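Propose amino acids for all 277 sites.
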């Protein structure tokens, strides 16, 4: 019964762990359309998640060094609580459509930059591999340009019609990325393959972030329709992805610590996989 002793000896750490679990589970449950009833203008699930986050805030303290020069237990608790509070939960209610639209627009320069890297990557591949890579990524420019235009249009007017176009377009991009990853995996030259996969994943990381944001303002039925058109699932390309690269991109975009970005990336991947992407 050591786990009971641990709970007794470290009640604050145990409480923080429980609250972090509640926040994570509430997010996943909310994404699946489970509400457990209404609570004011929101739902019981989102209320529980918000209360758990608030309690984590009360538990948190600034990380620091203890008198003996090692990080104290309370400092560790505070750090993890603050990390949980910093995590943006795109599938939790409370973010306005305008705020989400702005967040999507904020990602579009990174999308355009990643696609530009793809366009120039062919020259760095072995001559025999360049045609395969070019064919795999041929649709990136047109799809990303349309995605950027729709994101800006949605920011100006976050209407249902524009959102529907965004929902369709982000799935188109996601499928192009997944298809390109599978085709790039066939490149025999290891150096060419590694470079090709990395540049494609840069696009894929941004697309995944935008997809999560689109999910947050989409109805359950709309997400189900999007997932139905996502024929190449995340699970099929997961083994080709470099988590460190994705984490670095997210951390750089939000200007946040790598551990926080790592938790965000994992959370978004879980959310999208559970939604059927």
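Proposal:
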């Amino acid at each position: 019964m050591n786990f009971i002793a641990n709970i007794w000896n470290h009640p604050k750490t145990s409480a923080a762990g429980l609250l972090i679990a509640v926040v994570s589970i509430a997010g996943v449950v909310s994404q699946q359309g489970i509400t457990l009833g209404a609570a004011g203008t929101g739902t019981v699930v989102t209320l529980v998640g918000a209360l758990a986050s608030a309690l984590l805030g009360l538990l948190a303290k600034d990380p620091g060094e203890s008198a003996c020069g090692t990080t104290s237990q309370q400092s560790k608790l505070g750090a993890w609580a603050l990390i949980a509070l910093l995590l943006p939960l795109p599938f939790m209610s409370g973010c306005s459509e305008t705020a989400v639209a702005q967040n999507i627009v904020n990602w579009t320069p990174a999308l355009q930059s990643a696609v530009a890297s793809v366009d120039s990557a062919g020259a760095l591949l072995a001559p025999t591999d360049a045609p395969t890579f070019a064919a795999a990524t041929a649709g990136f420019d047109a799809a990303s340009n349309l995605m950027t235009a729709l994101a800006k249009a949605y920011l100006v007017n976050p209407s249902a019609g524009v959102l529907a176009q965004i929902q369709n377009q982000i799935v188109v991009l996601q499928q192009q990325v997944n298809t390109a990853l599978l085709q790039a995996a066939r490149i025999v030259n290891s150096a060419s393959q590694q470079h090709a996969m990395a540049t494609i994943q840069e696009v894929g990381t941004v697309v995944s972030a935008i997809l999560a944001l689109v999910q947050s303002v989409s109805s359950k039925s709309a997400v189900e329709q999007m997932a139905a058109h996502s024929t190449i699932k995340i699970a099929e390309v997961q083994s080709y992805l470099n988590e460190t690269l994705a984490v670095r991109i997210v951390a750089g975009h939000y200007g946040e610590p790598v551990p926080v970005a790592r938790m965000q990336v994992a959370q978004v991947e879980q959310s999208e996989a559970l939604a059927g992407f």
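The longest strand covers residues 38-39. The first helix runs from residue 2 to 9.
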